[in-house]
Specification:
With 431 residues, the chain is an alpha+beta fold. The chain has helices spanning 56-71, 81-91, 96-109, 132-143, 145-163, 173-198, 204-211, 216-221, 291-297, 302-318, 325-328, 366-384, 412-425, and strands spanning 4-5, 11-14, 19-31, 43-46, 49-54, 75-78, 127-130, 237-239, 242-244, 251-258, 270-290, 336-342, 389-395, 407-408, 427-429.
Length: 431
């Protein structure tokens, strides 16, 4: 839905597309907030120089879990839906294996091309569902237990008949191994085909309704399920990869772990030695929330949309990626938070740092990073004009006002309140 209705029955719609942009300048100490597959800090080349990088996927994950905790809801991205549903059914008195088979049969009932059950017992694709969907699946299995049991019996009978076919034997051990692997793949495929064949057609719509269900987390971050367009949700939140405003190099830390028992005698010293990689830097981080999309994803419920908006802004500003948290405690706050409510399009200001910031003689990279953002924001306003900028303001640890970044507010509460009031003011009676 793209409209909302108030208690008097008056229909409201967004006056125009509204985007809430959040820009952060944040300094992190010696840390490894986001690791690559070798365990080193992630980097990227930008402006022909190596920068530190905080991946958007990692940021989205941790801001989402923080948002869920704030709102008291939860969504699960998992392949383990059948196992989770089976566990609920087992608590209700089902035999676990029977419950697992029933939950797997429900997946096939959806009749979504390409969606099935892997040999691990879970789905062959990640599903992103409200946590309540697991209970909904269990309730459906309970209500349709007789029908599911009958369908499973037919599928088992057909599969048992197929297994009676004699196995191929060529006499060559290597070829036999290859043949066995092919047979295993064929068996898995055949199992899925047979399960789909006997899945009760009457349960297609109820299962699809569960797959299409969403809560605030799904509304904010989106979902894609191939070949099932009605389950796909265009996320309202877009997050950029965070980049350092300056060039950096990865630093190596040699460490040793002392063996507390080896305190003397013929053997002493470290129980383990190794090295870790860390960086330090000032990061520019950016995210944008599409208010129009969020309203649509929550079926026009403005109260819920406001809660999601407020929770997301707070989560993006305050959440620190926790990697190596025990060893580095890099729990800093942003020196600058710049927020903009726009009615034209989102604007990422990372171009301020295409030319790397140089360290000040006294003061590191922060002064140059703040100045570059202010200059680039002013240039963007000159180019686009300010008609599409409904509101902008800044806050953070800095004490001075930055005129190009709007009014200076004291803290996060003032910033969040001002944004929500601005967004609310951009809505009016539908014509």
């Amino acid at each position: 839905m793209t409209t909302a209705e108030n208690t008097e029955g008056t229909v409201f719609e967004p006056a125009r597309t509204v985007h809430v942009d959040v820009h952060l300048i944040q300094s992190f100490p010696y840390s490894n907030l986001n690791r690559d597959r070798q365990g080193a800090p992630k980097t990227a080349t930008y402006g022909a120089k190596v920068r530190g990088r905080l991946s958007s996927q990692n940021t989205r994950r941790h801001t989402r879990t923080d948002l869920e905790e704030t709102l008291g809801i939860r969504a699960l991205r998992t392949r383990q839906v059948p196992q989770q549903v089976a566990a609920i059914l087992a608590e209700r008195g089902w035999d676990y294996q029977q419950a697992l088979a029933a939950a797997q049969m429900l997946i096939y009932c959806a009749r979504v091309k390409g969606l099935g059950v892997a040999d691990t017992g879970g789905t062959n694709a990640l599903l992103f569902l409200p946590e309540a969907a697991l209970t909904d699946f269990a309730d459906l299995a309970d209500a349709e237990r007789e029908q599911l049991t009958a369908a499973l019996a037919k599928a088992d009978a057909e599969l048992a008949k197929a297994k009676k076919k004699p196995a191929k034997n060529t006499g060559d051990s290597d070829e036999d191994a290859d043949t066995q692997a092919e047979d295993d793949e064929e068996a898995e495929s055949a199992t899925g085909t047979v399960m789909a064949k006997h899945a009760p057609k009457e349960l297609k719509d109820p299962v699809l309704a569960i797959l299409r269900s969403r809560n605030a987390a799904v509304a904010a971050y989106g979902r894609m399920l191939a070949n099932e367009a009605a389950s796909t949700v265009n996320g309202a939140v877009q997050v950029a990869h965070g980049l350092t405003t300056h060039q950096l190099s990865v630093q190596v830390d040699f460490f040793s772990a002392v063996d507390d028992v080896l305190t003397g005698g013929t053997e002493s010293g470290a129980g383990h030695i190794g090295d870790q990689r860390y960086t330090t830097g000032v990061y520019y981080r950016y995210a944008s929330l599409n208010w129009h999309e969020l309203l649509r994803n929550v079926d026009g419920d403005e109260a819920t949309a406001r809660e999601v908006l407020e929770a997301f802004i707070r989560s993006f500003i305050t959440t620190v990626l926790p990697a190596k948290g025990n060893n580095t405690a890099a729990f800093t706050l942003p020196h600058l938070v710049y927020t903009v409510v726009r009615t034209d399009r989102p604007v990422n200001l990372v171009g301020a740092y295409e030319t790397p910031v140089q360290a000040a003689a006294e003061g590191g990279f922060l002064p140059g990073s703040l100045a570059a953002l202010s200059k680039h924001a002013a240039a963007s306003d000159r180019f686009l004009g300010t008609k599409g900028r409904a509101f902008h303001a800044h806050a953070g640890l800095i004490e001075d006002t930055v005129p190009a970044l709007g009014e200076r507010l004291e803290g996060i509460d003032d910033l969040v309140d001002s944004i929500t009031r601005s967004v609310a003011g951009l809505r009016g009676p539908a014509k």
